[in-house]
Structures are given as C-alpha cells and as structure tokens.
Amino acid sequence: MTAPTELKRGLFHTLSRLWETAKAHRGCFVAAGCAMLLTNLASFLRPYLLKRLTDDVLTAQSLAGKTNVLLLLLSGVLGATAMKGLFTYLQGYWLTTGSQRLARDLRDRLYAHVLRLPLSWFDESRVGDLIVRFTSDLRVVTEFINGGLSILVNDCIVIVSSLTWMVSADWQLTIVGMVITPAAGIIVRRFSKRMTHATESAQKTLSDLSNVVKETVEGIKVVKAFNREHYESQRFSERSRDSFRWAMRMVQLTATQSPLLEVLGTVGIALVLWYCAVNVMSGRLTLGDLLAFWGYMLLAMTPINRMAGTMQLITRGEVATSRVFEILDCPEQEARTSEGRELATIEGRISFEDVHFRYNALRDEALRGVTATIEPGHHVAVVGRNGAGKSTLVNLVPRFYEVTSGRISIDGQPISEVSLQSLRRQIAVVPQDTFLFSGTVRDNIRYGRPTATDDEVEAAAQVAGAHEFITAMELGYDTPLQECGRNLSGGQRQRLAIARVVLRDPVIVILDEATSSLDPNAERAIQETLHRATAGKTVINIVHRLTLAQAADHIIVLDEGRVVEQGRHADLLALRGTYWELYRPLLEASST
Prior knowledge:
With about 600 residues, this protein is α/β, with parallel strands linked by helices.
C-alpha cells in the first residue's frame, strides 16, 4: 500500500483500538472473560484437592472414618472437572461470537471507509494489497482474538494465580521455580522483534502475490497475445518463493523458540523437584504439599512452554490489525457526502477560474491556470494532445479530485462548498471503459436511479437505442451479465451506460472519450444516440476524433495543462493555431 498513514505499533495500542471498535459486542467478551475465570478456578481447585486427598487420606496413619472424606474429595475433583468443561464451552462460544461479530463490523466499516476515500488514494494503491487486507488480514484478526489474545489473557491469569498460591505456600520454593523466568523473558523479547519483521514481510509478499494474480487475469489477452505465459509464470513463482521464504522464516523462529523455552521449563521443574524432595525428607513439607506445588508449577509452566506459539499468534494479529487500521486511518475526502450546503436546482453553467491541479507533490502540475466558462445546455468538446490534461479537467467537476488552487463553480456556487451527494446527483459520467456490475441488464441500467420503475428503465433503454438488442436476448432485461459485461459487445455496453445516464436525468453529462474504443461507424451511431439523449443538458465531451468536435457549441483546446484556444470549429481553424495543427491531418486527407 503506497498511501498509508504512519503505523502505530504496540500491543496496548492495538488492543485499545480493538476494544473501542468492539463497543457493541463487549458483553460477549466480558461473558467470555467471566467464563475464563471460572474455568481457571476449577483448574486451581484440583491440585488443592489432590493435596488434601494425599495428606488426609492416602498418607493418614489410619483410614478409620476417612471414607466420607475420600468420597467428598473425589466428588470435588469430578465437580471441578465438570465445571471446567462447562465454562470452557461457554468461554469458547462467547469468545467466538464476539470475535466474529467484531470481524464483521471491521469488514463492513473498512469497506464503507474505502468507498469514501478519494480517487487519489486508489491511484496510489494496489488492488491486490487491498484484497489481502479484506481477506487474510481480517481472518488473522479473528484468529488473534480467538487464539492469541484469549490464550495470552488466560495464561496471565494462570501464571498470576499459580504464583500467588505458590508464594503463599512457600516463597523460597517459588523463587527456585521461577529462577528461569528472566532467561525466558530475554528469549521471548528477542524472538518477538524478529517475528514482527517476518510477519510484516510475509503479509507484504502475500499482497504482492495477490497483485500478480490480479494483473495477469485482467490482462490475460495481452499475456496470450505476446506469448508471455512463461514470463508471467516465472514472475508468479518468484513472488511465491518470497512468500514461502518468509513463511518458513516464521516457522523457523517458532520452532527454535519452543525448544529453548521447554528446556528452561524443564530446568525449573527439576530444581523444584530437588528442593521439594529435600524438604519432604526433612519433614518440612508433606507429600501433599509436594504434589500440590507440583500441580501449580505445571499450571504456571504450561504458558511458558507454549509462549512461542502464543507470541507468533500475537505478533501476526498485531501486524494484521495494524494493517486494517492503517487503511481506516487514511483521511476521507475533505467534504464528505453529507457535508456542505445542498446544491439546489441548477441550470448547468460551469466556470473554471484560474484552476491549478497536481496529483501529488512529486509530479508536475497537470493543469496550469485553466480559466473557461461552459454555458448551460451547451455541448462542449475538450480536445488536445495526449497528456494535455483533458481527463484531469473533467474529473475535477464531480470532485473526483480536489483542485490545488483556483475555483470551479456551478451556477456561481463553488463546488468545494456544496455536499458531494448533491453535486454528483446533478452529474453523470460515461467513461471510456464502460463498467457493468454483476446482476441483470435491468439492475445495471437502474444503477443510476435505484428507485426507477421497470417502465422507466425500458424507456431509458429505448432512448439509448438499447431496447432492441435487450429484448432480442432470451431473458430480455432479466439477462444476467458476466463479469464486466463480457457477454455483450463494446457498443452494447456503451448503450447500457447511456441508458443509465438517461435514467438518472442529470443536468451535466461528462463523456470521457466514451466512444474512442469503437470503430468509426459504431462511434458515429453512439454519438448520434448521445446527442439525442443529452439534448438540453450541459455536455462536456472529451473527443479523440476531431470530426466529432465540429458540431459542438464550443471547443476548449488544452495544451500542457493550459487552455490555449476556445471557440467554435470554424473560428478555431481560422486562427491556424493549436486546433488547426491537430485538425490539419484531416484537412490534408480530405484534399487528396
């Protein structure tokens, strides 16, 4: 992701943000926490009951009158076990419920936030990386809550509770058992830093891998046309090897850390056994004390032995959560959908006043002091060489991008001061590459106005010249479209896009080289349809073939981001300037 905000690292920061996000589901996590406490209480009862069973029954001088005590203690052990099983189930249920709901909310919030990000963010971001954050990262966040975080909290409870009992029973013996703790802490800290780096790199290589797949699938015709299957296969294999290498690095770190911690744990247990044996033989401790201490020592050592796996889950979860919040922290477009005053009924006069624009600080200005006025109801053609700034200019009108300086007004109202929703309600855009969504033909036409009736949809299709080919299909308007409308021709897709505009009935229509990919005959037919469909509306038409500019009410000529000429076709030819230079090949062709 090339447009991130600075990541804030730290488990506490990650947890605090997750807790803030989980407001609606805190009850699930509180219930899971209570069940966790009761589960551990049941676990702590069993070593104590074993101590009583050993000292009061098994090693007693006489068993007379001990039958009831034996039955009571055995019942206690069975009850503690049943209690642990019940609350383990409740803990898992509430924890999974809360984590899944939190993941759903994060996913929905992330998607809604991405839709409100400015186009400049998408220009600098990779789709593959975004998909990984929606899929892999959110899955890891769920595993982080269900696995790593819950285990960490549980282990903290176990260690603190076990140490509390051990200290109260024999503080000297506790010190002997915990002598390995500083060494374990050093190992965990060192491996944690390496694991964080490996996890970040693994997620990045996974994003790279996803992006390669996305590019190859989208450009498969180009790949096949140039016989680049082998090259793309190698490119994918390289990214796959990188991903494998970092995944194995994580496995290596975990596999190395676990034995080290297990060896340290065994050393601690051996020291405790030695100390207990000496004290039992001297009569300072009973056999029941030894067994109880042994039980609590095992409870305390279990989290230490599995700390490597726990820290891997924690590290992966922290990185994945930070990557999700990295996008959520990206600033939305300054004036959000509902902010600013409402743009009321308009005539459609568009004014550009000394407009400057650059895509980012590292690039030159795309527009330099553009000043022009488009009268309401006029069809205006915008022409110029490649890179002159034509698409940039029209993209500023619906505020896909914000001007760097200067002002754009509609009917005298600066568009920066009106709400995006009301502004874009008055505008429709037909891009060069028509995009159709999954669904039926009817759904795609209705996309411009979801409340439209079936009759209105069909009327719009008739105006756009699409009704005939739609009804010729077996299912008519209910025909499902393949991805991006691949089961339609280019001209048919363009007519559906025009029908979408007609149904929306905007005041301003922007045509961004909407027909340049069609052959001349199809383009001429579509242009005639557009002219009928947009009668009486303000139309800004970026034209690739200059013959289409002849009928325009006004022509704006751009060169290197500046307006160099304006006027009607005949007047601009008479100037023998930039427009004449662009049009001269057509004049020469017509004279031969």
